[in-house]
Specification:
Elements (H helix, E strand, L loop, with lengths): L18 E5 L2 E5 L7 E2 L7 E6 L5 E5 L10 E3 L2 E5 H6 L4 E6 L4 E6 L5 E5 L4 E5 L6 E5 L5 E2 L6 E4 L13 E5 L3 H9 L2 E2 L5 E5 L13 E3 L9 E5 L6 H10 L6 H10 L29 E5 L4 H15 L2 H10 L3 H14 L6 H12 L8 H10 L12 H4 L17 H8 L8 E4 L5 E4 L2 H12 L4
Parallel strand pairs: 3-16, 4-17, 5-18
Antiparallel strand pairs: 1-2, 4-5, 6-7, 7-14, 8-9, 9-10, 10-11, 11-12, 13-14, 15-17, 19-20, 21-22
Helix pairs in contact: 3-4, 7-8, 7-11, 8-11
Amino acid sequence: MQSKKQGEEGKMKHVKQKLKWFVTGAVVCIGILSCKSVTVNAAAAEYGLLVGNSSGHYTYYDLNGGKTTQRIEKSSGKVMVPVKKVSSYMSVLSYEYNWEQNKAAIKNKKNGKKIVLTKNSQYAYMYASKNAKVKKVKLSAKSYISSGSGALMADVKVFRYVFPKAAGYSFISTGDSEGKKKISQAYYNSPNLKSIIVYNPYKAVTSLPKADTVSFKSANELSSIVRLTIPEGYSLAQIADLTVKKGVCQSTKAFIKAANAVMPSSYWFLKDVKKTSARCFYLEGYLYPSTYEFYRNTAPEDVLAKILKNTGNQLTKAQEARAKELGYTLDQVLAIASIIEKEVSISTEQANVSSVLHNRLSSSEKLQCDATINYVEHYIKPYITGNKDRYNVYYNTYKCKALPSGPICNPGKKAIQAALYPNNTNYLFFCSSKKGKYYYSETYKEHQAIWEEIKNGLK
């Protein structure tokens, strides 16, 4: 059947005498002189971060300005730092995260040292040089993905493993009298300042240095929240691509892998959905179209969990019962709804098209919907390896006997409603003109006559 649906730092500045910054909603005054103090964001600051460069100058960073930023955190009594962000402050370092393996690598581009961290593991693997043998090391705490910012958090001491000298790291705390004295003498003053972390990827830290540069960004500037809208009719592959494009996830492949790894027992609406070789993407049809908020660089598993939680709120037991009345499972109804979503561009026509599909399913006719061919060609084949034609027989409704092996997109509420409540007709065929008008017929002869008129511009 021929039919198509119509298809989107504060500025860094060297300070010689005095610097004042005014931030909306609060005034933050930062002064740097040999006899002046550096005042950090008093309302939220707990940890200061000093980073040295190759010239011996230090920049002060405040990573405590808001819950949505990649902040320094405390977990199980251990101080944890956002690895990617802190790495970005040291040009000699590179950072990579492999979402498929849940591993992060910090590498010193100058000396070849590297450490590999694993999500939710207290162990890391260190390479003393480019060609050195790997050495397993135990960190003070497990690395984890922060629920507050989506950042990979690691033990504050982790960077010393890639510095030329382990003494390139120092931690000065106000919790002891000596540390408090050092911080006071260095003119870092704040009632909430707990500690100062010092990183120097070039040489040892022998004392608490003074900052030559101050970098500060407000919580709003550093906000890492992304609003992601899943349109009705998007396929799982399109959603995977969208999360990467928006900076929510880092890998389309990792997203798809995580989606196929979801356990049916985790969600009531998946209990009858079988994982078989005939079904390409297990969660196709279940990523409910809506607008979601995520942190940047969120693990695909966490993105999927949030979407599926909403799906569980949108799909109902009543819909499942209605599907049973029709002689289908909820998954089969979603497959019908997904075809309706892709074949029909006008919502008022969905119930009529639904009747065509239901009537054909009740007869000996194959569905023969062009949208299913499009799905295989554009949203399966580019995303799989091996025999790329192996899903034709399962999804191409010109070849498969009845419904495809699963939904071909993620349908919206109206399409699902139409699939559950088709109009009562005897139609077996439909088509639409370039003007967007839909035509229905009960026989193939009538259908062919209408289609010829459409092709000749008569309709």
